[in-house]
Fold:
Amino acid sequence: MRGKKYRVGCEEGLTKKWLRERKYDTYHRRAKEDGFRSRAIYKLFQISKPHNLIKTGDTVVDLGSFPGGWIQGARLLVGEEGFVLGIDLKPIKAFSWSNVKTLVGDITSLEEDEIREALPRKADVIISDVSPNLSGIWEVDHARQMDLARKSVELARALLHRGGNLIVKAFQGESFKEFLDEVKARFRSVKIVKPKASRKRSAEVYIVARGYNLNRGK
Ligand SMILES: C[S@@+](CC[C@H](N)C(=O)[O-])C[C@H]1O[C@@H](n2cnc3c(N)ncnc32)[C@H](O)[C@@H]1O
Structure:
């Protein structure tokens, strides 16, 4: 990726060309028509549905959730019995669902207890689409993304119950393999998923990890 142009699926990296392309993007149009806050919701459906990762009644924590597409997707999957907590640096426009809460905060410095207090019970699934402000310098952006991905795993360890699941965005690059091994050490099964709605030339992939702490004692 060094020296090459690259893209990620987050509005942090807006350019005129990217905005023009977005106008003609099928998922972007579909999200508008369906009343969703971002095209990213289709990535969540494409990752979660085939593996039944988020189920009716689940408690879900969404890290890096502005403007709220994944929150909407998670709420549709968990239904009325479930609960969704979204966290972002930016304030998220309120939802009318009573079982959706949001927190404004930095996931790298928020107290774990503050997150726990906002939850009705331990989480079943942590989902993280968090992305840094992009500098356009691959090495810098990759390192920042991987720091946020690592933080997401740390929070998953604090918030998930045994057997819970994790979906976390990562950029494929230098420290990817090491990160993957860290996740594998904590979860029973780990897969790399590139959903159709993720732009092909984007470096982003999602790590889907199931069964938190179920591989202990192997
Ligand atoms: C790709 S966007 C998320 C899109 C969202 N999943 C959706 O469906 O609408 C990534 C988000 O990560 C947030 N973010 C970046 N660094 C963060 C941090 N340290 N703590 C919390 N949120 C962060 C950004 O503000 C941005 O809104």
